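Aim 2, interim progress. The first record below pairs a target sequence with its structure tokens.
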Amino acid sequence: MYGLKTEDFQVLWVARYDYPPGWKMKYPHNHNYYQMIYVTEGEGEHLIGDATYVMRPARLYFIKPFLSHQITKVTESDLITYDLKFRVNDPRISAALDQLPMVTFLPDTKILDLFKTLREEWLEKKTYYKELASVYLIQIILNVLRLLEADKEIPYLELHELVSIADSNKPCNLIIDFIQKHYQEDLTLKKISESLGYNPSYICQVTKKMMNLSIMRFLNIYRIHKSKDLIRYSDYSLKQIATMVGFKTVHHFTRLFNEVEGTSPAKWREEWREKEKQGIRKDVFLNERFKNKTL
């Protein structure tokens, strides 16, 4: 049976930072360990690799070893973050961490509470604080992985929280901006290239290099992402939603939705509405023989 060992999880640094408006890191930097930055208040911009992301509350920014990053802007109010630096020597967990997106929306207060508890352990330095810190680190990692596994939509935050792909890659910025503004239209590679004034093959090269996606794949993923808001919060039929986000037929929409989400849009809507109902009150039984009595 597979088990985790606390000695395979090492906390290197944990801190709370209050960055004032106008502050920024002088230079991009990288390191040989993992880093998580969780934002609680304020806004800013964070360059991770070649992409710049908005920094907002309830977002977790994940930096892998040797990946260059830099907080490039803090806007009108203080940017308050919890910063965790750590190493993981467990192969299975390391492999899972390597699949994490660079920015994730995590409104679950459990994650923030764990960051605060871990920081308190390090501040107080009571007996076994290092061992307990490893336990809290494991809890943070496993809870993040569980939340991502439970809600497949979370990683696609990267598509709409992306600010830019570094100044040296302005063509990719233009492509992303164009898709976000025109995704509802009947777009082809030819139309996109003509509108932006780039050669079609060049556009394919840029998106493949910067996002590891073809331009049409990026377009379709973005359309699916936008469709989920309509599925969740409207009573439009799936046929209407397909048209509204740019698909010519509901069959094409359904096929791609299933490919991206692993289920049909009809099933996804059904499951979402069921989760909404269950969210009102749901009992959890750790002992199957236990019977909860209504007071």
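The second target in this work package is listed in the same format:
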Amino acid sequence: MKLRYCLLLSLIASACKNQAPAPEPAAEPPAVNVPAATSAPPAASAAPAASTVPGATVETPIASAQPAAPEVPVPTDLAAPPADAKKTASGLATKVLQPGKGKERPAPMDKVLVNYSGWTKDGKMFDSSIPRHAPSSFGVSQVIPGWTEGLQLMVAGEKRRMWIPAKLAYGDHPMAGAPVGDLVFDVELLEVQKPPKAPPDVKAAPKNATKTKSGLSYRVLQKGTGKDHPAATSRVTVHYSGWTPDGKMFDSSVARGEPATFSLNQVIKGWTEGVQLMVVGEKTRFWIPSELAYGSNPRPGAPSGMLVFDIELLRIQ
């Protein structure tokens, strides 16, 4: 439990650096979208509690009804990677334990489903999805650097052992509850989930798009069922994906598998104006000019120039 908690914090911290659409008037989107609550490197969608229906009556299963937790053998080469392990320039060492049948490797914006176990060099297991009988799902870029790099070397069906140096894990002085120093993980990549593809009209708004006085262009992709529009100060929950005009995705709550919640007065101007035009259930594409986004010379990490967002309004609070 301690590790899951610290992973959640570390994922949220790293996610905040990479987000782009919403929070402050010229800054990122909601930090709340970047979750990760399952374990070692997982993310929010992996958290078992996510599927629990509030208010539902759930009987506590008796111990005999629960499947026995499988034993996970401790690797004999934890102390150091063997001679046949391959080492990358960053210091990450890996060895394929079971070849995969997939053809595509995960990209930074992809989401993956994995089984894994993690040990410290002295043989102590600190986390594993296997005894939980629940694989973990999370974004490739939402985990510790060693995982982000290692996952991109794999294909679906592959099982790989990773010797991750402290600098690519939680460090030598991590937050409370996180494992210290060099770590070893056995990771089995079960599935790779690709993020939404760039729209065909990402380069410029089409003729059938509506343009406002501010320069914001939009086109409704899916009509909503709601009747009320959010106000400039409303708090909303949305799913969104954002691209630069060259088709590069820079952020997506859809890829993370977790909707974003934030106040409309805490986001870029194009979002504040655009989302107020929507009703619940609606999905709209916005072409946001630079002056309504992050500008032509934004802060480090933020996308520059005109941006395109697909936004689905899920809830108005």
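Residues 210-316 form a domain with the Chitinase A; domain 3 fold (CATH 3.10.50.40). This observation will shape the mutagenesis plan for the next reporting period.
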